Fold this sequence. Notes:
Layout: H1 8-25, H2 29-35, H3 40-48, H4 67-79, H5 87-101, H6 104-116, E1 121-124, E2 140-144, E3 147-157, E4 165-171, E5 183-189, E6 195-200, E7 212-222, E8 226-227, H7 233-269, E9 271-272, E10 275-276, H8 281-309, H9 315-340, H10 350-359, H11 368-378
Parallel strand pairs: 1-4
Antiparallel strand pairs: 2-3, 3-7, 4-5, 5-8, 6-7, 9-10
Amino acid sequence: MKRDIFSQEHDLFRNAFKSFVDREVVPHQAKWREDGMVSREVWRKAGEAGFLCPWMEEEHGGAGGDFLHSVVIMEELANAYESGFAMSLHSDIVVPYIHEFGNAEQKQKWLPGCASGELITAVGMTEPGTGSDLAGIQTTARKDGDHYVINGAKTFISNGQLCDLVVLACRTGEPGDDPHRSLSLFVVEAGTPGFTKGKKLEKMGMDSQDTSELAFEDCRVPAANLLGAPGAGFIMLMKKLQQERLAVAVAAQACAAQSLKDTITYTNERKAFGKSLSKFQNTQFKLAECATQVEVGQVFIDRLAAAHTKGEYLVKECSMAKLWHTEMLGRVVDECLQLFGGYGYMLEYPIARAYMDARVQRIYGGTNEIMKVIIAKQLGL
């Protein structure tokens, strides 16, 4: 079906970003995977070209666009099978906390750098002992004069090595306080004494993403770095998780569509028993099933992206999208890899990397089991 959510401006933006990906991303992917992280240079180039935080107002250094410009970026990175250059995490998950909940001084201090690529961001929620259960966060921040002293550890942090700013979830209440009312968010700057970037974690996929452990030991952060009011962190996190889960779903949908497209091309070209793989009924049936799922998924994603851009409340629907699209991606890449045969198991083929990268999408952004809990609650169950 023809997609109708994008304007001519979005189409021009897509063409420009696709050219950027072809020029500044694709030639470096192998090196980034070998290094275990992308370069700082590509972040700065993306910022210079107006591709970071494209939805943000020009007064803060943004391009004055909307969320659909971010959707374009998610889709084109997925089309290039680039899972390590975490532009969406930065632009659509972390920076919005500063943009919405920061005061004027905080916005002036950090937002221009976030848009230019001089400041790379990360979000510190997950800990060694807690993941989807945000109320279980144990990292503490104790007030000490005009500072907070932070102690704790975070893990599975994307952009963990490159980050210049971390939006950090900490417990500011006393033991026994309601955990939902004692969580606060701080912006912690790299180089702050007591803040250590730990080891870069070895993963089964997303090889160019510098997922890391972060440690905080008597880390003194100015009270001026507190986002919003003390104890308001849980509410702020809940307000922004809708967009995070939609972003995960958008990327999953785009990766499934690209994997299908490349598999159709491969099966048309690959010969077996004197004819193209695509001429075998099994191949046709498998690709027909995948294509149906991708087509249905695209309609749902487009409806959600358009509604979210208008500001609609879509917690249930975005949770559904995160659940369904990530599981759909898993099914599609598995079927597609099978049709590549032995070549699908070779890392030089993007489908192999897509298969490995797909698995974590059912885990991060809130596990799919948590998505089911949220959906059930939204249904009044």
